[in-house]
Specification:
single chain; about 300 residues; alpha/beta; UDP-N-acetylmuramoyl-L-alanine:D-glutamate ligase; 4-stranded mixed sheet; 9 helices
Length: about 300
Protein backbone atom coordinates (compact mmCIF):
# COMPACT_ATOMS: atom_id res chain seq x y z
CA UNK A 1 0.00 0.00 0.00
CA UNK A 2 1.07 3.59 -0.65
CA UNK A 3 0.58 6.73 1.43
CA UNK A 4 1.30 10.24 0.17
CA UNK A 5 2.86 12.59 2.74
CA UNK A 6 1.95 16.16 1.75
CA UNK A 7 4.26 18.55 3.57
CA UNK A 8 7.46 20.52 3.03
CA UNK A 9 10.74 19.01 4.18
CA UNK A 10 12.16 20.61 7.33
CA UNK A 11 15.62 21.16 8.74
CA UNK A 12 15.42 21.33 12.54
CA UNK A 13 17.79 22.74 15.13
CA UNK A 14 16.59 21.10 18.34
CA UNK A 15 17.54 22.12 21.87
CA UNK A 16 16.33 19.21 23.97
CA UNK A 17 15.17 19.17 27.58
CA UNK A 18 18.75 18.62 28.74
CA UNK A 19 20.06 21.62 26.80
CA UNK A 20 21.74 19.46 24.14
CA UNK A 21 21.61 20.99 20.65
CA UNK A 22 21.16 18.74 17.62
CA UNK A 23 20.62 19.36 13.91
CA UNK A 24 18.23 17.01 12.13
CA UNK A 25 16.08 16.63 9.08
CA UNK A 26 12.49 16.58 10.24
CA UNK A 27 8.85 17.43 9.70
CA UNK A 28 6.09 15.03 8.61
CA UNK A 29 8.08 14.10 5.48
CA UNK A 30 10.57 12.35 7.74
CA UNK A 31 8.62 11.28 10.83
CA UNK A 32 5.43 10.21 9.01
CA UNK A 33 7.38 8.73 6.12
CA UNK A 34 9.69 6.66 8.30
CA UNK A 35 7.00 5.20 10.57
CA UNK A 36 4.84 4.44 7.51
CA UNK A 37 7.80 2.58 6.01
CA UNK A 38 8.26 0.68 9.27
CA UNK A 39 4.60 -0.35 9.14
CA UNK A 40 4.95 -1.78 5.64
CA UNK A 41 3.70 1.15 3.54
CA UNK A 42 5.43 2.86 0.65
CA UNK A 43 5.69 6.58 1.54
CA UNK A 44 5.44 8.96 -1.42
CA UNK A 45 6.67 12.44 -0.59
CA UNK A 46 4.92 15.53 -1.96
CA UNK A 47 7.30 18.22 -0.78
CA UNK A 48 9.35 21.30 -1.67
CA UNK A 49 12.95 21.70 -0.51
CA UNK A 50 15.83 24.04 -1.23
CA UNK A 51 19.17 23.69 -2.97
CA UNK A 52 20.73 24.01 0.48
CA UNK A 53 19.79 20.35 1.04
CA UNK A 54 23.12 18.54 1.08
CA UNK A 55 23.86 15.34 -0.84
CA UNK A 56 24.59 13.46 2.39
CA UNK A 57 21.13 14.49 3.64
CA UNK A 58 19.52 13.12 0.48
CA UNK A 59 21.42 9.88 0.98
CA UNK A 60 20.31 9.71 4.60
CA UNK A 61 16.69 9.92 3.49
CA UNK A 62 17.27 7.22 0.86
CA UNK A 63 18.68 4.85 3.49
CA UNK A 64 15.37 5.32 5.35
CA UNK A 65 13.35 4.53 2.22
CA UNK A 66 12.39 8.16 1.57
CA UNK A 67 12.86 9.63 -1.90
CA UNK A 68 12.39 13.30 -2.83
CA UNK A 69 11.06 14.14 -6.27
CA UNK A 70 13.52 16.25 -8.32
CA UNK A 71 10.60 18.50 -9.29
CA UNK A 72 10.31 19.53 -5.63
CA UNK A 73 13.62 21.42 -5.72
CA UNK A 74 13.28 25.16 -5.07
CA UNK A 75 15.52 28.22 -5.30
CA UNK A 76 14.33 29.17 -1.79
CA UNK A 77 15.95 27.70 1.29
CA UNK A 78 14.53 24.54 2.84
CA UNK A 79 12.04 25.32 5.61
CA UNK A 80 13.94 25.59 8.90
CA UNK A 81 12.76 25.62 12.50
CA UNK A 82 14.66 26.35 15.67
CA UNK A 83 12.95 24.17 18.29
CA UNK A 84 13.33 24.52 22.04
CA UNK A 85 11.88 21.56 23.94
CA UNK A 86 9.99 22.46 27.11
CA UNK A 87 9.01 19.10 28.57
CA UNK A 88 6.41 17.75 26.14
CA UNK A 89 5.69 21.21 24.77
CA UNK A 90 8.06 23.30 22.69
CA UNK A 91 8.84 26.75 21.34
CA UNK A 92 9.21 27.07 17.55
CA UNK A 93 11.00 29.79 15.64
CA UNK A 94 10.72 29.88 11.84
CA UNK A 95 14.12 30.64 10.32
CA UNK A 96 13.32 30.06 6.63
CA UNK A 97 10.24 29.06 4.68
CA UNK A 98 10.33 27.22 1.36
CA UNK A 99 7.75 27.82 -1.35
CA UNK A 100 4.22 26.46 -1.48
CA UNK A 101 3.29 23.14 -3.01
CA UNK A 102 1.82 23.25 -6.51
CA UNK A 103 -1.15 21.50 -8.00
CA UNK A 104 1.12 19.89 -10.61
CA UNK A 105 3.01 18.21 -7.72
CA UNK A 106 0.02 15.99 -7.00
CA UNK A 107 -2.38 16.03 -9.96
CA UNK A 108 -3.05 12.69 -11.62
CA UNK A 109 -1.33 10.84 -8.77
CA UNK A 110 -3.27 8.18 -6.88
CA UNK A 111 -2.49 6.58 -3.55
CA UNK A 112 -4.26 4.38 -1.03
CA UNK A 113 -4.06 7.21 1.50
CA UNK A 114 -3.13 10.88 1.79
CA UNK A 115 -1.73 12.52 4.90
CA UNK A 116 -1.86 16.30 4.59
CA UNK A 117 0.31 17.84 7.29
CA UNK A 118 1.68 21.28 6.38
CA UNK A 119 4.38 22.75 8.61
CA UNK A 120 3.80 26.42 7.72
CA UNK A 121 1.11 27.34 5.21
CA UNK A 122 2.63 25.49 2.24
CA UNK A 123 -0.60 23.74 1.18
CA UNK A 124 -2.74 26.21 -0.83
CA UNK A 125 -6.52 25.76 -1.15
CA UNK A 126 -6.37 24.30 -4.67
CA UNK A 127 -4.02 21.53 -3.50
CA UNK A 128 -6.19 20.65 -0.50
CA UNK A 129 -9.28 20.75 -2.73
CA UNK A 130 -7.76 18.25 -5.15
CA UNK A 131 -6.86 15.89 -2.32
CA UNK A 132 -10.31 16.23 -0.76
CA UNK A 133 -11.78 15.14 -4.08
CA UNK A 134 -9.61 12.05 -3.94
CA UNK A 135 -11.18 11.36 -0.55
CA UNK A 136 -14.62 11.52 -2.10
CA UNK A 137 -13.45 8.87 -4.55
CA UNK A 138 -12.63 6.41 -1.74
CA UNK A 139 -8.98 7.24 -1.12
CA UNK A 140 -8.37 7.72 2.62
CA UNK A 141 -7.49 11.31 3.54
CA UNK A 142 -6.18 12.44 6.92
CA UNK A 143 -5.32 16.02 7.85
CA UNK A 144 -3.08 17.42 10.56
CA UNK A 145 -3.84 21.16 10.30
CA UNK A 146 -0.79 22.33 12.26
CA UNK A 147 0.64 24.40 9.38
CA UNK A 148 -2.73 25.98 8.59
CA UNK A 149 -3.08 27.23 12.17
CA UNK A 150 0.42 28.65 12.67
CA UNK A 151 1.44 32.28 12.40
CA UNK A 152 4.90 33.82 12.84
CA UNK A 153 5.75 37.25 14.26
CA UNK A 154 8.54 39.48 12.95
CA UNK A 155 11.08 37.44 14.95
CA UNK A 156 9.80 34.16 13.53
CA UNK A 157 8.24 32.99 16.81
CA UNK A 158 5.37 30.62 16.03
CA UNK A 159 1.97 30.89 17.71
CA UNK A 160 -1.47 29.52 16.85
CA UNK A 161 -4.14 31.65 15.19
CA UNK A 162 -7.33 32.40 17.10
CA UNK A 163 -9.62 31.03 14.40
CA UNK A 164 -9.47 29.44 10.96
CA UNK A 165 -11.99 27.82 8.65
CA UNK A 166 -11.08 24.77 6.58
CA UNK A 167 -13.16 22.93 4.02
CA UNK A 168 -12.73 19.29 5.06
CA UNK A 169 -15.46 17.76 2.91
CA UNK A 170 -13.96 14.49 1.70
CA UNK A 171 -11.54 14.17 4.64
CA UNK A 172 -11.99 11.06 6.78
CA UNK A 173 -9.75 11.84 9.77
CA UNK A 174 -8.18 14.83 11.50
CA UNK A 175 -5.59 15.00 14.28
CA UNK A 176 -5.58 18.01 16.62
CA UNK A 177 -3.79 19.18 19.73
CA UNK A 178 -5.73 21.39 22.21
CA UNK A 179 -4.62 24.68 20.62
CA UNK A 180 -5.55 23.50 17.12
CA UNK A 181 -8.88 22.18 18.38
CA UNK A 182 -9.68 25.59 19.84
CA UNK A 183 -8.60 27.28 16.60
CA UNK A 184 -11.06 25.23 14.52
CA UNK A 185 -13.97 25.45 16.98
CA UNK A 186 -13.89 29.05 18.17
CA UNK A 187 -12.28 28.25 21.50
CA UNK A 188 -13.89 24.95 22.46
CA UNK A 189 -11.86 22.21 24.12
CA UNK A 190 -12.11 18.57 25.11
CA UNK A 191 -15.13 16.48 24.25
CA UNK A 192 -17.30 19.48 23.31
CA UNK A 193 -14.71 20.64 20.80
CA UNK A 194 -14.34 17.17 19.31
CA UNK A 195 -18.12 16.88 18.98
CA UNK A 196 -18.25 20.17 17.11
CA UNK A 197 -15.54 19.00 14.70
CA UNK A 198 -17.58 15.88 13.93
CA UNK A 199 -20.78 17.84 13.38
CA UNK A 200 -19.45 20.95 11.64
CA UNK A 201 -16.69 19.51 9.46
CA UNK A 202 -18.22 16.11 8.71
CA UNK A 203 -15.08 14.01 9.23
CA UNK A 204 -15.39 10.41 10.40
CA UNK A 205 -12.63 10.42 13.02
CA UNK A 206 -11.29 13.18 15.29
CA UNK A 207 -8.06 12.47 17.18
CA UNK A 208 -7.27 14.86 20.01
CA UNK A 209 -3.92 14.60 21.78
CA UNK A 210 -3.35 15.82 25.31
CA UNK A 211 -0.22 15.60 27.44
CA UNK A 212 -1.17 12.28 29.01
CA UNK A 213 -4.01 11.00 26.84
CA UNK A 214 -5.15 10.37 23.27
CA UNK A 215 -8.85 10.58 22.39
CA UNK A 216 -10.69 9.47 19.26
CA UNK A 217 -14.24 10.65 18.52
CA UNK A 218 -16.50 9.00 15.96
CA UNK A 219 -20.30 8.97 15.65
CA UNK A 220 -21.54 9.57 19.23
CA UNK A 221 -18.65 7.98 21.13
CA UNK A 222 -15.22 9.11 22.32
CA UNK A 223 -12.55 6.47 22.95
CA UNK A 224 -9.65 7.34 25.26
CA UNK A 225 -6.23 5.94 26.12
CA UNK A 226 -3.96 7.14 28.91
CA UNK A 227 -0.29 7.49 28.00
CA UNK A 228 2.16 6.24 30.61
CA UNK A 229 4.18 8.86 32.48
CA UNK A 230 7.75 9.03 31.19
CA UNK A 231 10.56 11.50 30.66
CA UNK A 232 12.03 12.25 27.26
CA UNK A 233 14.78 14.53 26.02
CA UNK A 234 13.00 15.38 22.75
CA UNK A 235 9.33 14.95 21.77
CA UNK A 236 9.73 16.49 18.30
CA UNK A 237 7.77 14.54 15.68
CA UNK A 238 5.57 12.63 18.14
CA UNK A 239 2.36 14.03 16.63
CA UNK A 240 3.53 13.09 13.14
CA UNK A 241 4.28 9.53 14.26
CA UNK A 242 0.79 9.31 15.78
CA UNK A 243 -1.00 10.57 12.66
CA UNK A 244 0.82 8.30 10.22
CA UNK A 245 0.45 5.25 12.46
CA UNK A 246 -3.30 5.77 12.78
CA UNK A 247 -3.73 6.28 9.03
CA UNK A 248 -1.65 3.24 8.05
CA UNK A 249 -3.18 0.93 10.64
CA UNK A 250 -6.74 1.97 9.90
CA UNK A 251 -6.21 1.52 6.18
CA UNK A 252 -4.62 -1.90 6.65
CA UNK A 253 -6.95 -3.28 9.32
CA UNK A 254 -10.13 -1.28 8.55
CA UNK A 255 -10.51 -0.92 12.33
CA UNK A 256 -10.30 2.48 14.01
CA UNK A 257 -9.89 0.92 17.47
CA UNK A 258 -6.69 -0.80 16.40
CA UNK A 259 -5.72 2.41 14.62
CA UNK A 260 -5.98 4.28 17.92
CA UNK A 261 -4.16 1.58 19.88
CA UNK A 262 -1.33 1.37 17.36
CA UNK A 263 -1.03 5.17 17.34
CA UNK A 264 -0.72 5.21 21.14
CA UNK A 265 1.68 2.29 20.92
CA UNK A 266 3.90 4.13 18.44
CA UNK A 267 3.92 7.31 20.53
CA UNK A 268 4.85 5.36 23.66
CA UNK A 269 7.53 3.33 21.87
CA UNK A 270 9.03 6.51 20.45
CA UNK A 271 9.13 8.26 23.84
CA UNK A 272 10.58 5.15 25.46
CA UNK A 273 13.65 5.36 23.22
CA UNK A 274 14.58 8.70 24.84
CA UNK A 275 16.44 9.49 21.62
CA UNK A 276 16.59 12.70 19.59
CA UNK A 277 15.35 13.61 16.15
CA UNK A 278 14.79 10.81 13.66
CA UNK A 279 16.52 8.30 15.92
CA UNK A 280 13.30 8.03 17.93
CA UNK A 281 11.35 6.20 15.19
CA UNK A 282 10.29 2.95 16.92
CA UNK A 283 10.43 -0.52 15.40
CA UNK A 284 7.25 -2.29 14.43
CA UNK A 285 7.49 -5.09 17.00
CA UNK A 286 7.60 -2.60 19.89
CA UNK A 287 4.64 -0.69 18.44
CA UNK A 288 2.63 -3.92 18.19
CA UNK A 289 3.56 -4.92 21.75
CA UNK A 290 2.39 -1.56 23.11
CA UNK A 291 -0.77 -1.62 20.97
CA UNK A 292 -1.82 -4.93 22.54
CA UNK A 293 -1.41 -3.38 25.98
CA UNK A 294 -3.47 -0.32 25.07
CA UNK A 295 -6.23 -2.45 23.53
CA UNK A 296 -6.94 -3.81 27.00
CA UNK A 297 -7.01 -0.37 28.66
CA UNK A 298 -9.42 1.38 26.26
CA UNK A 299 -12.15 3.54 27.81
CA UNK A 300 -15.12 5.20 26.10
CA UNK A 301 -17.80 7.80 26.75
CA UNK A 302 -20.96 8.78 24.91
CA UNK A 303 -21.29 12.32 23.61
Amino acid sequence: MEIAIVSNLVKDTITDNNGVIAHSLGGPVCYCGMIAKELGFKPNLVSRYGKDLQEWERQLLKTKGLFLEPSGSSDLKTTRFNIRCLGRSRELILESNCEKLRLEDIIKTHHDAWLVSPVFDEVPPEVLDYIRQRGKELEFVMVDPQGFTRIADDKGIITVKDRINLDLNGVQAIKLDPAELACLTGGLSGFSGMKKILEHYGVDFVLNTEEKAIHLATDNTIYSLTILEMTTSDATGIGDILSATFACTYLKENDFIWGLCFAAGAVTASLQTNLRGLEKIPNRSKVEENASYFYNTLQFDKI
